[in-house]
Predict the structure.
Amino acid sequence: MTIRNLFIAPLLALLLAACGGGGSGGEESPTPAPQGCTASSCGTVFLSLTDADGDFLSYSVDVVSLSLRKASGAAVETLPVATRVDFAQLVDLTEFVTAATVPNGIYVEGTIRLDYSNADITVEVNGEPRAAQVVGANGQPLGVVDVRVMLDNRNHVVIVPGRPSWLELDFDLAASHTVDIATTPVRAVAEPFVVASLDPEDAKEMRLHGPLVSVNVAGGSYLIDVRPFEHRNGRFGQVTVNTTAQTEFEVDGQTYTGTAGLEAMAALSAGAPTAAFGVLDRSERRFTAERVHAGTSVPGPSHDALRGNVIARAGDTLTVRGATLIRRSGSVTFIRDDITLLVGDDTGVTRDGQRGNDLGDEAISVGQRIAAFGEASEQNGEVVFDANPGRVRLHLTHLWGTLGTANPGSLVVDLASIDGRRIEIFDFAGTGATPATDADPSSYEIATGSLGVNDLTSGEPIRVFGFVTPFGNAPPDFEGRTFVDFSDVRAIMNIGWGAGTSAPFLSMGNDGLTLDNDNPDLGLRHFIFIGPRVIDITTLPAPPRIGPANGRGLYAIGQPLRVEVYSDFGEFAARLAEKLSGGAEAMALSTGGAWDAGTGTLTTNRLSIRLSAD
């Protein structure tokens, strides 16, 4: 039997702001309020979803409900309708889902209901997308699962007029997720594990979808009805999207900046689709867009859309493997087989963050992450997507690899993956000006412009964000916009103890936990991942330690369908010791932070450990 660990840690973030003031994030018209609500007695809850990197290519499940409960027992539902979410597509951003009105008060816990009955989950096996079935610890397929979430006693959710707050729910499957890739379908064992905190340290780019309601050119904003993901109907509330003079717009395939973009949006009919990407001001709860797509630049009834990475190109025929297909009918499907993408002289090509629509189709090269707009059809049992005439948008693409050399203006990297896909699936033939200069993934040349590279260290992991060089024009192979070097790459530790252990640590206290890396109950998971680097903790010369980082933390103890959350590491460690001495056994641990190889210490402010029942 072949078992492989997969890391996936979906995050669900709730933004809460009471009616009557406290921010300009757009509380104008939430979903229908509970009976008896007034401006002074109820507040607005913004629900958003995100995810962390993982080997899952798709992870679509139905989020049926998400309720909050007061100490008195009174509960309120925050999700107006069931929402299908592909968590694997939310690696680098957070999706706004709803704006729901809830009564003022203090909320101490929550419950999230997930329905796996129609889950569509895909795992990459040796570069090939394979269907996976999620089962529980008993080996039976998961159906509807309710997970109770307890909030830290120091951090209850308080909804009062003029006092906004932010609640983040972290749906951490990393602490309990293993996959058997030898079965058909692939068998994924999971026990949902959800933790919560009020003021998350990290914030990703946010995406806000929905049909246009109105445009305020003078005020630099526009109003939308929130419709998350690819929803074509339903009431999810209204939110104001603020813009700046630097906001980039693409409206009906044309690009604009600042006020010109708002003027182009004002010419659209009410109900035109929009998608904004930007940042939420955490102190003011004000959403400001850095990029806006509107009209036919958003998947809608006028065209089909395709999202994925190009793995090969021959002339005007490109291949995309493992991609999301959005039909004009509204259906959204993850296609596991290869998709043929056709382009030509009539294909309009744009690039995120660049004005003008003068890029030719040769700008689309191997590795590039794209969104194509055109017409999909089936030919001989395969999907063919015709984007000529049509459009292709080039999205920021991210590379993982090991640094070879760094010189002013350039890097040479040994690639491990592109947007999480194994490098072996990409065929770089034709990417160079001549066959001899085709991109070589083991010596991938990246132009860095004026980015500082002096502090980079050869042989260490690196993550680079940017765009692939136009087809047939390498070298360089890639235009780097930003990069994250080894010192800033987050280390991920995943530990499993098979059937469980009563003694996972050699010591436990306020200053940290020392793992027993000789524990005979260690299972298949006993690794630290730093980008493409993998450290086996059983080979370390001394037992590794997990220490608390300075500042606020999020430390969780999960047992079947119950999670306790602590912001203070000392309180967490004391409760964990109490649980272990009381008969519970450690099953799995997941954490991430800064790894110091010299001291053998991983410093973190987020840790989840799953225990058996007491």
Notes: The first strand starts at residue 3 and ends at 5. DSSP finds two helices and 45 strands in the chain.
